[in-house]
Write a structure and sequence with these properties.
Elements: H1 3-22, H2 24-37, H3 51-71, H4 77-93, H5 99-111, E1 125-128, E2 148-155, H6 163-185, E3 198-199, E4 202-207, E5 211-218, E6 221-230, E7 233-242, H7 247-277
Antiparallel strand pairs: 1-2, 2-7, 3-4, 4-5, 5-6, 6-7
Helix pairs in contact: 1-3, 1-5, 4-5, 4-6, 5-7, 6-7
Length: about 280
């Protein structure tokens, strides 16, 4: 069983415990009916509406999530996209809930890579946080008062490719359909149709000699991806600005998964362009 699967099963158990506590009066009432009327009281015990129906559907999610946990693995973009969409929708409708965790685990499943790749992640350096970002990194973003920033760097020979070519290799070739599924689950307004002024659906917002900035937005916030190469390194910076109270819940859990997959994305991009050079 994968790590994301085990995490999903932990969520399922927690969901069941919370459900039993939350609906203990309803469960006690149903148990009392069975004791007084016999086993036949079970038939038709749950109506289409009412407290019992609510408790039934809430508790049913626990075994469903536990079962999914037995099979879901990093790289399963179908199951991951469904879980992410469910988590994001639930986070919007019920911000104070466990739905952000479901969104994060779904993104992990959809964008994750096999554990064998993790050894190479030692090459990647990481900075997380708007405060204390490396010199020049924060200035490449045009977002005012961003709420989130992370910055990842790997050693690389930039070769003959422009920043836009690095970005297209990263998000179109390596990220591909898996990245598209997650971006759409996060409700980012992107246009994946091939276009000279877009990369993987993200609008090219600005560029310099050794960097390019991509921009996308949704109703809950704005996002920028900045690809920079030079001085023997390749870097990816992600910057987020929140425009709605639900944004911390939506991006909060998803960002944890994002930070797990970015190293593999950078390493995969380096391998892709190194193969093209040969």
């Amino acid at each position: 069983m994968s790590a994301v699967g085990r995490a999903l099963q932990v969520v399922a158990v927690g969901h069941a415990v919370i459900g039993v506590q939350q609906y203990r009066d309803v469960l006690a009432d149903a148990t009392r009916d069975v004791r007084e009327r016999g086993p036949g009281a079970v038939v038709g015990a749950v109506g289409d509406r009412g407290d019992r129906a609510t408790a039934f559907w809430f508790l049913l999610a626990a075994p469903a999530l536990w079962t999914v946990g037995r099979t879901v693995t990093p790289g399963d973009r179908g199951a991951g996209a469904v879980l992410t969409a469910l988590g994001v929708a639930g986070s919007v409708l019920m911000p104070t809930s466990g739905f952000p965790v479901i969104a994060g685990l779904g993104a992990w499943a959809a964008l994750g890579r096999p554990p064998a790749n993790r050894r190479s992640h030692e090459e990647v350096t990481e900075h997380v946080g708007v405060t204390g970002a490396p010199a020049g990194v924060r200035e490449r973003s045009s977002l005012d008062a961003p709420a989130y920033l992370d910055h990842y760097v790997i050693p690389v020979d930039p070769g003959p490719w422009t920043p836009e070519q690095w970005a297209r290799a990263m998000f179109e070739d390596v990220g591909g359909a898996r990245a598209q599924a997650i971006w759409r689950a996060l409700m980012l307004r992107i246009d994946p149709q091939p276009s000279p002024d877009r990369v993987a659906g993200w609008r090219i917002d600005a560029a310099g000699d050794d960097w390019i900035r991509l921009h996308a937005q949704t109703w809950w916030g704005r996002a920028q991806l900045i690809v920079h190469h030079g001085d023997g390194h390749l870097a990816l910076t992600t910057v987020m600005a929140y425009d709605h109270a639900a944004a911390p819940a939506i991006w909060g859990a998803t960002s944890a998964v994002h930070r797990r997959v970015v190293p593999g994305l950078l390493l995969g991009t380096r391998r892709t362009l190194e193969r093209r050079r040969v």
